[in-house]
Write a structure and sequence with these properties.
The protein is 18% helix and 27% strand. With 290 residues, it is α+β, with helices and mostly antiparallel strands. The protein has one domain: q2cbj1_9rhob like domain (Jelly Rolls, Sandwich), CATH 2.60.120.620. It has an eight-stranded mixed β-sheet with strand order 1-13-8-15-5-4-3-2. The longest helix is centred in the N-terminal third of the chain and has 17 residues, at 28-44.
Length: 290
């Protein structure tokens, strides 16, 4: 597509609702390229070299070295339900991975090309990001049958800035429907407060000293009920833009169909990025824009 600017109607909708759906943003060829690359990464992944399980269910969860070290590299994370009681995979490795993260956009040429384009640069400008910085990328598999729930959350929890500027670019790489656990959002919910922060802490000396991260509750405002939320069904190639304070959620995927997606989390360099955020980018891998 051409680097078109958002219409006045689209801008109004985004600031009113906290999200925007842009069908046909990526081509079938673009999608095929990143899907093939993700398959290659998973095939090459040796769990013996380190592994992690990704879940959002424990609200005060701390994280391990494998997760904390993923900010500046590319690592695979398993679904929580991928293993049996004996710790063995229930199905093939390819159908067991929850996601790949978190520096695909900087370290892999295929994902770099997908993540950076004049179209995305123009969109960031239209959304008011004067100096966009891409902090994180994730390839999300939402595996058939075992794709884990992602509880209600706000992305500013993980990328706090002053003022809050984090914006999520969520690309549907397969059709996302209610059957295979599409996103749900609370329209207008971005007008509410930031409820949580995911902050770095230093674990005490012991068997595994070093940095970790925990959820810190900031506001007791309850998360939305599904009765007040709406599903965001999206055809492959659609880009969904989410305001950093917009509450969103996805159910477990119990269907026989996967729901692949790719996400970028972007802030404005004109805002102050918190040194307490879990993801930090020390040299020699500085954060960059589009």
């Amino acid at each position: 597509m051409n680097a078109k600017t958002l219409t006045a109607v689209q801008k109004t909708q985004y600031w009113r609702d906290g999200y925007l759906v842009l069908p046909g943003f990526k081509s079938a060829a673009d999608i095929a390229a990143v899907r093939a690359r993700a398959d290659h990464i998973v095939t090459a992944f040796d769990p013996a070299q380190g592994q992690g399980i990704f879940t959002t269910q424990e609200q005060s969860r701390s994280t391990d070295d494998y997760f904390m070290g993923s900010a500046c590299t590319v690592r695979c994370f398993f679904e929580a339900e991928a293993f049996d009681a004996q710790g063995q995979l229930r199905q093939s490795k390819a159908l067991s991975i929850n996601k790949i993260g978190h520096a695909l956009h900087d370290l892999d040429p295929v994902f770099n090309a997908f993540s950076r384009s004049p179209e995305l640069a123009q969109l960031a400008t239209d959304l008011g990001l004067t100096q966009p910085q891409i902090w994180q990328s994730q390839y999300i598999f939402k595996q058939p049958g075992i794709g884990g729930e992602v509880r209600w959350h706000q992305d500013a929890t993980f990328f706090e800035t002053v003022p809050i500027t984090v914006t999520t670019f969520w690309f549907a790489l397969e059709d996302a429907t209610q059957d295979n656990a599409c996103l749900w959002v609370e329209p207008g919910g971005h007008a509410g407060p930031l409820r949580e922060r995911f902050v770095r802490v230093q674990t005490p000396a012991g068997p595994a000293p070093g940095p970790a991260a925990v959820i810190e509750r900031l506001n007791a405002m309850p998360w939305p009920a599904l009765a007040t939320a709406i599903p965001v069904e999206a055809k492959a190639g659609t880009l969904v833009v989410l305001h950093g304070l917009l509450p969103h959620y996805s159910a477990p995927n119990r269907s026989p169909a996967s729901r692949h997606a790719y996400t970028l989390h972007v802030t404005d360099a004109s805002s102050a990025y918190s040194p307490d955020n879990w993801l930090q980018r020390p040299d020699p891998l500085p954060v960059r824009g589009f």
